[in-house]
Amino acid sequence: MAITGKADPGRVIGFLPLYRQVKERLVRRIADGEWQAGRAIPSEMQIAAELGVSQGTVRKALDEMTAERLLIRRQGVGTFVASHDEDRILFQFFKLGRDDGRRVFPDSSVLSVGEQPSDATEAARLGIRRGTRVVRIHRLRSLGGAIAVSERIVVPSARFAGLAACDPVPNNLYGLYAERYGVTVARASESLKAVACPPDDAAHLGLAPGSPVLAIDRLALDLDGQKVEWRVSLCRTDQFHYTSDLK
Amino acid sequence: MAITGKADPGRVIGFLPLYRQVKERLVRRIADGEWQAGRAIPSEMQIAAELGVSQGTVRKALDEMTAERLLIRRQGVGTFVASHDEDRILFQFFKLGRDDGRRVFPDSSVLSVGEQPSDATEAARLGIRRGTRVVRIHRLRSLGGAIAVSERIVVPSARFAGLAACDPVPNNLYGLYAERYGVTVARASESLKAVACPPDDAAHLGLAPGSPVLAIDRLALDLDGQKVEWRVSLCRTDQFHYTSDLK
DNA sequence: TAGTGGTCTAGACCACGAA
DNA sequence: TCGTGGTCTAGACCACTAT
After folding, report:
1. Domains of chain B
2. Tell me: the pLDDT tens digits for A68-94?
3. What is the pLDDT of residues B147-189, one digit of tens each?
4. For residue A101, is it left (φ>0), alpha (ψ between -120 and 50) or beta?
5. Which residues of B fall within a CB distance of 8 Å from A212?
6. Residue whose CA lies closest to nucleotide D5 C1'
7. How far is A41 from chain B (nearest CA, A)?
8. Which of A9, A183, B31, B153 is positioned for an S-S bond with B223, CB 3.0–4.6 A?
9. pLDDT for B187
10. CA distances from A143 to B185, B190, B215 (A)
11. Within 7 Å: CB of B56 and strand D?
12. pTM check: above 0.85
């Protein structure tokens, strides 16, 4: 047993409850690719025996990881590492929907892909040095056949070798990041503004230049909180809307 | 003891785990005003003894209620009913912030308050019959001195008797709903669009008519999921932005 | 039927805050 | 010092799924 069992009274600084120590170890197994997306992890009893803690302690760690959508539990079957399948993307990472309420997965058509040195803005957003190479993707996304979004994506080349040469670039990028590069997008932070649509995007979206569009600026983070991807999406909101639940 | 102890095997339909039954009872005590906002509730042991269940079962109910922000736990002190103080509003219900990152509580200046029969749109959004009387409030909100939002609020008069005569209308409306009317806003659903600003709102916001503004359409629900309030906020986003965390 | 996660209990000890 | 919530354990039984 490598984890200190009961909290030793001498340690005051850096104390972590046992179940948090267990959780950190298990998260690391996902981050390191030891446990892969979509696969079952060992049973609670097996993990408890391996780490020398009680089942209840393992359960509390798994409960938190489930709440953070890192795991999916299926009664009678087992516990699985969450994958970026379309359902998860749709409910966790794609907030734009049709006004008629139908939720559909967006289609994509790629306009350009390339690898270049990062400019100052990209470097600042991604926390890298200016000039560090990045992959840039520009694509249109449609909902139910109607073009809705003009989207520009930037990722550091270092973590995504060969992405620029990928043909075709898949629709579900987060799934690709996980499967091909072992990078798990765990959460993202979005900043929204209403802006006047620039002429070239307006042409792609079928709008008059200057029309109001919703600009979504998103920074995606991995399991360690490292910045993985920056994307800016310009969205038509005449037939679509962005949903945000406050709770 | 009124709660059925162990799950009786005969019941298949409508089965609820014991801790969920406990939770429903405790939520009801808040909804009924038996436990008031900001006040301490009995200790876990007291609740467990009263309901004839173990402390662990009560704890699981309280854990869920804490996760839903209905309760606030303070180690060594007790468990308290969450109140709509400025901190909670700021983090849970107010997503607009300054671009410089400073988070401040918005000021309000009321333009008009009145009670009238509801129109078709209001009735549909609030789930009431058209013509049922509602209170309408129109106010401007500013962040750090700069006017940022033109906001129109509609609530059914039935649940908020005398609200239209309230002078002044307080800045923190959800706090008023709770204290004066016993109505707890538990969660809200927002729908966002970028729109061209109408002339009268543009004048209030200091914008040219037709400028892009963020339109936030919010429906607020109480503890029972009943529709409490509908509000539409038109927001300048030249110096401000709406934050949405996906996780 | 076997194995998984889900629920419930009981009791121990710890950390924290107030008096 | 006392009472609170926080952590950890151990064991029992239930519900669900696959075989």
Report:
1. 12-81 (1.10.10.10), 86-242 (3.40.1410.10)
2. 999 999 999 999 999 999 889 989 999
3. 999 999 999 999 999 999 988 999 999 999 999 999 999 999 9
4. left
5. 194-196, 212-213
6. B75
7. 22
8. B31
9. 96
10. 33, 20, 21
11. yes
12. yes
